[in-house]
Design goal:
alpha/beta; Rossmann fold; 7-stranded parallel beta sheet; 4-stranded mixed beta sheet; globular
Length: 403
Amino acid sequence: MARRKVGVWLIGCKGGVAATVTVGLTALRKGLTETIGLITETPPYNDLDLVGWNDIVLGGHDIREVTLYEAAKLLASNNHALDSNLIDRCKSDLDKIDKNSRPGTLFNVGSTIEKFADASTKKKSKEESPRDAIGRIQADLAEFQKKNGLDQVIVVNVASTEPPIAAEDVPGTWKELSKLLDKPRKCPLPASSLYAIATIELGFPYINFTPSPGSALPAIQELAVEKGVPHMGHDGKTGETLLKSALAPMFAGRNLQVMSWVGHNIFGNMDGKVLDDPANKATKVRSKDKLLGQILGYSPQTLISIEYIESLGDWKTAWDHIHFKGFLGTPMTMQFTWQGCDSLLAAPLVIDLVRFTELAARRGEKGLMSFLACFFKSPLGVQENDFVRQLQMLEAWVAKAKS
């Protein structure tokens, strides 16, 4: 294809996932790393007309005053998640990308997330209406596009998990919802949804990699169709839930009755700190607990716990206990332990999602990108949670894109 410059705007651009995406893309451009973890570099995806590493420009919003180099070094020193020497070799690029970062918004993000914000961001957020925040976000995105001569901008939310909102508090149509944007006290939308609205109104694609509402609300989905914008979410499927979506079909396929499935998750990064708040944790647990009933066709007893253990840093550990019934009613047990670096599991998925989304937008697709279901714990508009079948959905879309 003719070379196209694509901007990737990361919400939470100084967090662990975003810092790993930034170091990863920089290392790929410099030829300092392999493409392990990126499915877009494997058949049948690697001969698609996808945007290349050298044509991606990074920027983003964050609520903290920290440099990308400092954020990446923290992953190396505290978590041993990134190679410190690799970060040093990427430093000049990280410093340039820092110039594309802007202060984010704190509207309805909850008190735990607010604690991490710098004073100026807190002050600005208190003075803004939702519509003011949207306008500021749009000005930042427009400046980013113009300054870098970008053909497309894709916004990806990789910020911390917001507390849940009650669906009944949000109007079901865009016409009604838009009226609340000038009324701070009456607007229930969290920051993730303000970012989604700002992005979609400008005609840019939006990806929600978090369990926060984002573009999931029906009124915002309506806006996306009206504006002809592709979007998808939510909550990236990186670890324990990925294993569930692969293992649960096995039990269903062999007619082994799952009686209970218990999952205990421990990790110590910033996401862990945020999820230590019961309100924020409720959003995450709801996302992780959906798929078993949909895959099995019945609902076994489930328990999901998420606990913050500071010493673990970015290394997320999950222990699962599956109690199932076999032939002649015999109870049996399967247990597994999963340990992975949270940011390193997530970052390649973000890059793949950006590449697929850019192609979908170029093909004129709008609304939910359901073919990307395999990347999410709770894929919007998709009831299928069997990982293999979700991959088949992606492969079917790829075949169409090649035809």
